[in-house]
């Protein structure tokens, strides 16, 4: 399990401590995906105009 490996490497006694540093917030995930999708769609539509 990747979290267990990271927990060991970081020297954390509890996995919950490691999880605090490895989780990505839902808001950040949505914003990042939205930027990527907007860019992809924009590029695809621009390619159709050529």
What is the gist of this entry?
By secondary structure, the chain is an all-alpha fold. The protein has three helices and no strands.
Could you characterize what this model shows?
- The longest helix has 24 residues, at 26-49.
- Helix 1 crosses helix 2.
- The protein is an all-alpha fold and 50 residues long.
- It is built from three helices and no strands.
- It has a domain at 24-50.
SSE topology:
Elements: H1 2-10, H2 15-22, H3 26-49
Mean residue pLDDT: 89
The number of helical segments is 3
Biggest sheet features: none
Structural class: mainly alpha
DSSP strand (E) fraction? Answer: under 5%
Helix content: over 70%
The termini sit apart by 48 Å
Shape: rod-shaped
